[in-house]
Amino acid sequence: MCSPNTILAALDGADTGPGCGCDHLGHTGDHAGAAAPAGPSPAAAVLRADADVPEAPRLGGIGRRRMLRAALGGALGLAGVAVAPAVAAAQPVADGPVTPAAARRTIGFDRVVDLTHPLSPDFPVFEMFVRPPEVQQWRNLDEHGFNTNEWRFNEHTGTHIDVPAHAQNGAVTVDQLPLENFIAPLAVVRYAERADRDNATELTVADIEAWERRNGRLPRGAFVAADASWYRRVGTPAFLNLDVAAESLSFPGVSPEAADFLITQRSIVGFGTDTISLDHSSRLFPLVHRMLLTTGRYGLEAMANLDEVPDTGATLVLGVPKLRGGFGAPVRAMALF
Fold it and tell me: Which residues contact 176 (CB under 8 A, 6 or more apart)?
């Protein structure tokens, strides 16, 4: 059986040198004094199965072989070695705890930005359609030995996902969305300066084209986030701009033209906003919702901290409750870069 360092070095394509009798990824030799194993080790089987598979496209700097190295490193207690060059893999590994920073490097990112608002009873909602969240403590530590709350909230509260069944009967519900769509290249298109001056503005095709002139074509399978820096208004009347007398709200959204461009001219898994809706507040019929969701894609609403994420180069990761039959759900969204 090869040493863990030898296995990881072989995965990186390095010459493992003489004296090893294993055939991991084609290297052969003898383990001096070692009895022949009854069969291939689990690690060897994984390596052998991966040997002839080309490297898959990378998302957010995480490649298939790199993830395999990380997985083997964790399994063998070598997280610090898992992403090191093959030459370094042969060096002794010092015992000690793996720091959060080292763990981040292991899977290829240095920073995580939370794109999620805390969900609470005072999170603003459009009460004509959505009831405010409610929470009460159901059991407590002193009397029952543990704490637990009961929550009541609409699926479309806080930072949340809209799924195809939200706009089309019989379409995919939240528990049926492909998991791979919850990890995607993140493109942030900004129009905050204009939104600050004009609540009636929308993300336009021109905004997307200007982004592409600076950054290149939107990545295949991307998620596009429209950054109006609107999240900063949460907790103030300016988030909804409610006019009680007129029974109206005022906030930006995505224009139908921009939605059509992203859906028909680019390859995306979905798009989202840091306002309370994909649609502009003046649009009584949820046209942009229909355009997006009836194509099998998803939307995110009430995102946060988009201004802390680069225009390109980050990876969106979503944690989504698997609500059977759900038309949406609160999510934990984050950007890795």
Answer: none
- Output Rg (C-alpha) for the chain, integer angstroms: 25
- 102-121 pLDDT, tens digit per residue, is 656 666 899 999 999 999 99
Q: Map out the domains of the chain with their CATH numbers.
A: 4-108 (no CATH), 134-336 (3.50.30.50)
Closest CA to 79 of 102, 59, 48: 102
Give this prediction's pTM.
0.69
* Predicted confidence (pLDDT) per residue in 122-154, tens digit: 999 887 788 999 999 999 999 999 999 999 999
The residues, ordered by sequence, that sit 6+ positions from 253 with a Cβ below 8 Å of its Cβ are 202, 203, 226, 273, 275, 277, 278, 279, 280, 281, 283, 288
Token pair, residue 191, equals: 């129009």
Q: In what side-by-side order are the strands of the sheet with 183-190?
A: 112-114, 332-336, 314-319, 183-190, 222-227, 268-273, 298-301, 160-162, 328-330
The token pair at 63 is 């490649």
Alpha helices of the chain — where are they, by DSSP H? Answer: 4-11, 42-51, 64-75, 79-82, 86-89, 100-106, 141-144, 192-197, 205-215, 256-265, 287-293
